[in-house]
Amino acid sequence: MSGKLYGLGVGPGDPDLMTLKAVKVLAAVPVIAYIVAKTDDPSKKSLARTIAAPFIGPDRTEIEIPIAMLEDAAPGAGIYDRYADVIAGHLDAGRDVAMLCEGDPLLFGSFMYMLGRLRSGYDIETVPGVSSLGAAAAAAGLALVSRRQCLAVIPATLRREDLQRRLSGGDAVAIFKVGRHLEKIRGILEDNDRSTGAIFVERASLPDGRVLPLADVADGSHYFAMILVPARHGENE
What we know:
The protein contains seven helices and ten strands. By secondary structure, the protein is α/β, with parallel strands linked by helices. The chain has two domains: 4-127, Tetrapyrrole methylase, N-terminal domain (Cobalt-precorrin-4 Transmethylase, domain 1, 3-Layer(aba) Sandwich); 132-229, 2-Layer Sandwich (Methyltransferase, Cobalt-precorrin-4 Transmethylase, Domain 2), CATH 3.30.950. A five-stranded parallel sheet has the order 3-2-4-1-5, sandwiched between helices. It has a five-stranded mixed sheet with strand order 6-7-10-8-9, with helices on one face. A hairpin with a 7-residue loop joins strand 8 (199-202) and strand 9. Helix 3 (74-92) packs across helix 4 (111-118). The relative contact order is 0.17. The model has no long low-confidence stretch (mean pLDDT 90).
């Protein structure tokens, strides 16, 4: 009998935000898999593994999936193909596998790529987690939408013209994957008169997290960061 694959949302950073179900799965599965960013820094650790560490029992088989965070998705596709085969080998041997994902597995989550490769041949369950979006809003004390307002979820990696079009509306916006795109986003928001009230949230729920007005952010690249843009006052209230 084949094992079961779990896509396990471990939340945005604080281990206390992991769900009871995620903790129960971690207590039971013999194999865990997780993404490790492929960088020049050998000390770089998997955030998902770090979050889940208090709940990972001894004698687990661990599968590190090294992914370079590149704009070009082609190299990553080959890595997912290779490690889908590794995970399938464990499943075929009857071992359950949990793939750890920061936040929620299916909201910009890496698990979606394994789901697409393995869903036709195996029993798979996605365990949702507290998303970075919910954690960022909570950290900022910002209500995202109300009544008839809408929320746009936008990756900062889009081309400038696409971002310009999507950020020109009046409803609330959550901008993911800020990274090195901070100044591009800031400029577009200013051009569209959307910068007032915009909040920068970095590493929400973690001890070193930051929440501050976007106008006050002056430093570097921020991979685990989000920008929240409230709806214009009076828009669809």
